[in-house]
Amino acid sequence: MSAAISHRAFEEIYRTEQKRLLHFFRRKIGPGDASDLVQETFARVWQSGAFDRLDNPQGYLTRTAQNLLIDLARRRKRNACTICPLNEARDASLPPHQEWGIQALELRAAYRRALLALPRRTRRIFLMQRLKGMTYREVGQELGVGHQCIEYHMIAALRALRGANLY
């Protein structure tokens, strides 16, 4: 077959098969790259030099189109990049709430033991001042003691609690 006849035969196959291949690619990968893949299919068939010897050019074009899709899938898989945006609300590390709760319970228990170990009057003065928020003057008036007595008991309570590593 001469080059001119071969060229005309190829043009004829192109005109008859181009729409079918375009439809094939659109179904497989969408309209974006379909026309480029049709052109690539015909270019590969022409460059192969086998067009002159084909008994079934339509079948050869279909097989070439399928191979292009396989190559495209491999290329996309090889070049695939997974992007995982950081969602700080979801991905940030969480504070150890459970551990904090356990530590708080242990601290309360140690605080209670240390308070119970205080002399009764010292414990009462300390709790009136710290728990009820009373001033030294108010505590003194309620108990009928002076300012220096309140200071003495507060210092003793704080020293005992500090010794228990609570202050």
From TrEMBL:
UniProt keyword Phosphoprotein, yes or no: no
Annotated keywords: DNA-binding, DNA-directed RNA polymerase, Sigma factor, Transcription, Transcription regulation
InterPro entries in the cross-refs: RNA_pol_sigma-70-like (IPR039425), RNA_pol_sigma-70_dom (IPR014284), RNA_pol_sigma70_r2 (IPR007627), RNA_pol_sigma70_r4_t2 (IPR013249), RNA_pol_sigma_r2 (IPR013325), RNA_pol_sigma_r3/r4-like (IPR013324), WH-like_DNA-bd_sf (IPR036388)
Keyword DNA-binding attributed: yes
Signal peptide: none
Domain RNA polymerase sigma-70 region: residue ranges: 13-78
Limits of the RNA polymerase sigma factor 70 region 4 type domain: 109-146
GO CC annotations on file: DNA-directed RNA polymerase complex
Family: Belongs to the sigma-70 factor family. ECF subfamily.
Listed NCBIfam families: sigma70-ECF
Name of the protein: DNA-directed RNA polymerase sigma-70 factor
Organism: Blastomonas aquatica
